[in-house]
Amino acid sequence: MSRKDVIAGSRNEEGIPRAVEQLKQRFGERCQTGQSFREQHAHTTTYLPSQLPDAVVFVETSAEVQAVVQICAEHKVPMVAFGTGSSLEGQVNAANGGISIDFSRMDKVLAVNVEDLDCTVEPGVTREALNTYLRDTGLFFPIDPGANASIGGMVATRASGTNAVRYGTMKDNVLALTVVTAKGEEIRTAHRARKSSAGYDLTRLFVGSEGTLGIITSVTLRLQGIPEAIGGGIVAFADEKSACDAVITTIQMGIPVARIELLDALQIRACNAYSGLTLQEKPTLFLEFHGSAETVAMQAAQFDEIQQEFGGEGFRFTTDPQERSQVWKARHNAYWAGRALAPELSGLSSDVCVPISRLADCVAETRADLDRHGLLATIVGHVGDGNFHVLLLFDASNETDVDKVEAFLARLNARALAMDGTCTGEHGIGQGKMSYLEAELGGAIDVMRQIKQALDPDNLFNPGKIFR
Amino acid sequence: MSRKDVIAGSRNEEGIPRAVEQLKQRFGERCQTGQSFREQHAHTTTYLPSQLPDAVVFVETSAEVQAVVQICAEHKVPMVAFGTGSSLEGQVNAANGGISIDFSRMDKVLAVNVEDLDCTVEPGVTREALNTYLRDTGLFFPIDPGANASIGGMVATRASGTNAVRYGTMKDNVLALTVVTAKGEEIRTAHRARKSSAGYDLTRLFVGSEGTLGIITSVTLRLQGIPEAIGGGIVAFADEKSACDAVITTIQMGIPVARIELLDALQIRACNAYSGLTLQEKPTLFLEFHGSAETVAMQAAQFDEIQQEFGGEGFRFTTDPQERSQVWKARHNAYWAGRALAPELSGLSSDVCVPISRLADCVAETRADLDRHGLLATIVGHVGDGNFHVLLLFDASNETDVDKVEAFLARLNARALAMDGTCTGEHGIGQGKMSYLEAELGGAIDVMRQIKQALDPDNLFNPGKIFR
User: Fold this and answer.
1) Interface touch A196/B453, C-beta < 8 Å
2) Does the distance separating the beta carbons of B198 and A442 come in below 8 Å?
3) Which residues of chain A make contact with B454, given a CB cutoff of 8 A?
């Protein structure tokens, strides 16, 4: 992540007021230009400076999205789709000004097809709201990035999270999208069949495109049956490497864990303080198994042998829902717990992902790097995928500190790339990771640019993101 | 599928001989212009008329692929990538003439990372050769479209097959690609991390693009551990609907079947004759379960209850490898067994895919439609995905017969689409399904065209495929 990538692009000073005027006429009170609305819609959840939109439009239907796109296209005014604002790389910043399209009122579940294990939702539905809605159907939507993000935002950033090791990421769980294109037309990328070879995979092209190719207006998702049995447990290790080696063996043996999360010693200390727990302050794995009572017990027993092999300090397994939920609530609050270690400092959560065989090396080297440079940071990871996060706490007003953090991030990303990994497993590129993307994919970015140019020739959809 | 979509485009009569001349100088004996080579590389495995390339180049390295692309680009000559020629919708036809790039000599396994459960191969490796190569590693590559297709071809058509119900399709099993672009440059779409949010998903864009956006030069694949135990069995039903209802319940209950295939009564008759079996001539399900000895037995027991509920006539379960392999060999030979029902007739295998809840209706209506119109055809399906094939046998020299077949195909595709399905679960569009793609995705095809125009502005990569 680098502040230097947060560049204000050229603003269309003539077009913007005209578009805002037209949007006010069309949307009345649902087009807001007040400072607080604008600030709230450029909040980046990071230390990156905010770049405010000129107006926020609260859309309620896909026809209204089309109207916004048509007005903005006419005046060549940028648009930034906004879900809940929980993205982490500056994705919602309005680099060239323009209109924030707020989806919080497009929060309806449009259809649930229980027999086909799928549903279609508006983009503003949050994952928690969806799962509450689904509760009586016996189905659930497994992707869980931590934050209570909107489904549209999760599509846009190709989100994943704790359950991805078993259920995949958004790329694996979106069956179809409707999208408003730069021409203001709504297209459908696919239908509800589980698989298709019908033309280019536009669904997957829009998943992870961070709002730069079109505006998503509905999402058809795969759902999963709520498991008959859920078991879970935690286990502490002497060091990060032992914990990661246990993870590597678990994955290589093909044990279908539903969740396998690493929290380092400092993160455990933070969670103890924040969530009132009394865990040992050591690198700890949090696990969950889904299946029948028999298969859950079988998986737990297999894992128990593995953790012993790597010196795990007593695997506490439970099927008690209350005990499990307390532990996972602590995991979900890890970000806030980490921030509470030093509330006066800024927080920056960065993620990388490496092939599973390199996980232990990457985490251990990263911990050593942090310690060597005296950086205050916790490590938390969806380690079953080889994906982990570093939450850095630092004084964003102190140039020396910021430089130190940015130098660390450059080393972190170079390390992941040298291990054949990626600069982001799930946060996306946004503004913060453009230079790392260049190092990772080089010439492929030209192909991305050609696609962007073809689908959005006036560069109105979320300009200044992913690549320059 | 319609013959009218097999249109010869405009040939570049000046450029082609120049390019061929240059390719002969560069590749010597590995650039062939003889009639038999040209015919073999335009064989369509269907009744669609062949469209011959002007020359066939047998490439051996990705640098050579770049050289071919550069020479063809210079003279504006079309290129068609060729694996084994087992595609079913005319994908390898050279609609505008030009060069067939044959990958049979690019058949090396470049790397196997056992610890990460992945490998990187050249595109000409066939799936059987890959699995033979992997045998000692304890890993296998699960995607099995029936034909011993090349991995490159399977990427290009987004292939799937019998194991997809458990292991997904090519879209789920390709981690990264290298691709030569229209500029003759080689790009890498991703690295080996299990997940990434780094920019547009170019991997998935090239998967299923049927050679129209670039030429694939290497493929990084996910692999699976060879299951500790494999069990399987077959069971006959009174009619297609009962068999499909058993499938629907199996999927809805979340039983992780590795394979669940339907063969209709006529197909069973064909397999009995072709493979020397003595199965009852009734709609029959072929199943396979992967896991530990316990979980395989558990899954089989659960399925046993389901089949009884739908009147299955005795589920014969076995873990004996020889018995299993005889049954699955018969399944793999189903296409040739079907053709042998009437060797004097042409064969045409078409596939559709519907949401699982509509499978029984779609298969039953299709069977009734075939009978009503007196068409000779078998139905075989990867029914766990809602995907099935109709193998039509007819006299391709008789216009009335061909018209009847084409009218049936139009009804089949309209039926699948009305059920929120797709005109192809796994064969792709090629030349044969362009009109069905239009009915299915409408305006989204404009977006596909924009991408094609951006990445291949001179329309040299496999022109005349997917869309007009």
Assistant:
1) no
2) no
3) 450-451, 453-454
How far is B336 from B393, CA to CA, in rounded Å? 12
Query: Average pLDDT of chain B?
Result: 95
CATH superfamily of A227-426+438-460: FAD-linked oxidases, C-terminal domain (3.40.462.10)
Between A195, A208, A353, which is nearest B385 by CB?
A195
User: How far, CA to CA in Å, does B68 sit from each of B36, B138, B153, B160?
Assistant: 21, 38, 18, 30
Q: A with B: how many residue pairs have Cβ under 8 Å apart?
A: 276
* Torsions phi, psi for B375 (to 5 deg): -95, 140
What is the pLDDT confidence band of residue A45, given thresholds at 50, 70 and 90?
confident
Residues of A in contact with B427 (CB under 8 A): 197
pLDDT band at B329 (very low <50, low <70, confident <90, very high): confident
CA distance A54 to A17: 9
What are the chain A neighbours of B436 within 8 Å (beta carbons)? 198
Closest to B202 (Cβ–Cβ): which among A188, A385, A447?
Answer: A447
Cβ–Cβ of B199/A466 closer than 8 Å? yes
What chain A residue is nearest to B195 in terms of C-alpha separation? Answer: A425
- The answer to whether B116 contacts A355, with C-beta atoms less than 8 Å apart, is yes
Fold of A3-104: 3.30.43
A424–B466 C-beta distance less than 8 A: no
Residues in A closer than 8 angstroms to B461, CB to CB, are none
Task: Find the length of chain A.
Answer: 468
Statement: residue A1 has pLDDT above 60: no
Partner residues linked to B113 by β-bridges: B118
Q: Domain limits of chain B?
A: 3-104, 109-225, 228-430
Q: How many CA atoms lie within 13 A of A375 on its CB side?
A: 29
CATH number of this structure's domain B109-225, picked from the four choices 3.30.465.10, 2.40.50.100, 3.30.930.10, 3.90.550.10: 3.30.465.10
pLDDT of residue B361 exceeding 80, the answer is yes
Report the mean per-residue pLDDT for chain A.
Answer: 95
- Cβ atoms of residues A325 and A353 within 8 Å: no
- Best of A66, A447, A455 to mutate (most B CBs within 10 Å, chain B): A447
Contact at CB, B252 and A422, closer than 8 angstroms: no
pLDDT at position A124 over 90: yes
Token pair in block for residue B461: 């990569």
Residue A311 reports pLDDT greater than 60:
yes
Find the residue in A nearest to B439 (Cα). A198
User: Do A421 and B224 make contact, defined as CB atoms within 8 angstroms?
Assistant: no
pLDDT in tens, A210-262: 999 999 999 999 999 999 999 999 999 999 999 999 999 999 898 999 999 99
Distance CA(A337)–CA(A391), nearest Å, equals: 11
Chain A environment of B386 (Cβ under 8 Å): 193-194
What is each CA distance from A341 to A132, A285, A334, A345, A346, in whole angstroms? 32, 21, 11, 9, 11
Question: What ipTM does this complex have?
Answer: 0.97
Distance from CA of A216 to the nearest CA of B (A): 13
**Lookup: tokens for B363:** 């298969």
List the single residue in A with minimal CA-CA distance to B385.
Answer: A194
Q: Would you place residue A325 in the very low, low, confident or very high pLDDT band (cuts 50, 70, 90)?
A: confident
State the average pLDDT over residues A119-147. 96
Class of domain B228-430: alpha beta
- Quick check: A385 and B194 CB within 8 A? yes
What is the residue type of A384? G
Q: What is the DSSP string of A21-89?
A: HHHHHHHGGGEE--HHHHHHTT--SSSSPP---SEEEE--SHHHHHHHHHHHHHHT--EEEESSS--SS
The torsion angles phi and psi of B158, rounded to 5 degrees, stand at 55, 55
pLDDT score at B10:
86
